[in-house]
Design brief:
The chain is α+β, with helices and mostly antiparallel strands and about 180 residues long. It has one domain. Helix content is about 20%, strand content about 35%. The chain is built from 3 helices and 10 strands, in the order αβαβββββββββα. Strands 1, 2, 3, 4, 5, 6, 7, 8, 9 and 10 form a 10-stranded antiparallel β-sheet that branches. The radius of gyration is 16 Å and the shape is elongated. The relative contact order is 0.21.
Length: about 180
């Protein structure tokens, strides 16, 4: 019970990051160094307008966001499957009209569990999409125009690339 209260307090006090079972942040795509920072002077937003919920669903739905140590699959139904190292989750993902996409759930690893969520803001200008991790990440070009192989956008791949990893992680944890 004490562990659960400490964990809840840690998550509530943290930046809306995904909480790992060791109580450190689970690596998320925005933890990578941005390829191109946006210098907006005194502005607190990137250029362009906030993407719509529909645009974000089209961008992420049915795709896996591949991370260095796993990935996150955004099922068209709103289910989210995530694997980060030896941790996994079966949660949900959603979009909003203010340009935000969030995913999260209860991350599990061994006998410990913790709830975590990560949210990302998106803006679009022409064909360039800017992204930052909410609430205070640095804006960067998520998808340049024309798109580059180094764009974070290139790590969004069609289909579920996580379920197989999730089964392997669960099997390994069961064996321990």
């Amino acid at each position: 019970m004490r562990h659960q209260r400490m964990l809840t307090a840690k998550i509530a006090g943290a930046v809306l990051g995904v909480a790992c079972l060791s109580m450190a942040a689970v690596p998320t795509p925005a933890d990578a160094r941005p390829a191109k920072k946006v210098t907006a002077g005194a502005k607190s937003t990137a250029p362009g307008r906030a993407m719509t919920a529909s645009e974000l669903r089209q961008l992420y739905s049915g795709k896996t966001w591949v991370w260095a140590n796993g990935g996150g699959y955004m099922d068209p139904s709103g289910r989210f499957l995530g694997v980060a190292g030896k941790d996994y989750t079966r949660g949900t993902w959603r979009t909003s009209g203010n340009g935000t996409m969030c995913f999260g759930g209860v991350w599990t690893g061994g006998s410990k569990r913790s709830r975590g969520q990560a949210c990302f803001a998106h803006r679009i200008q022409g064909d360039t999409i800017y992204q930052r991790k909410n609430p205070s990440g640095t804006w960067y070009a998520f998808k340049n125009s024309p798109a580059r192989g180094t764009d974070e956008f290139s790590k969004l791949v069609d289909g579920d690339r996580v379920s197989g990893q999730l089964k392997q992680v669960q099997a390994a944890l069961s064996a321990d």
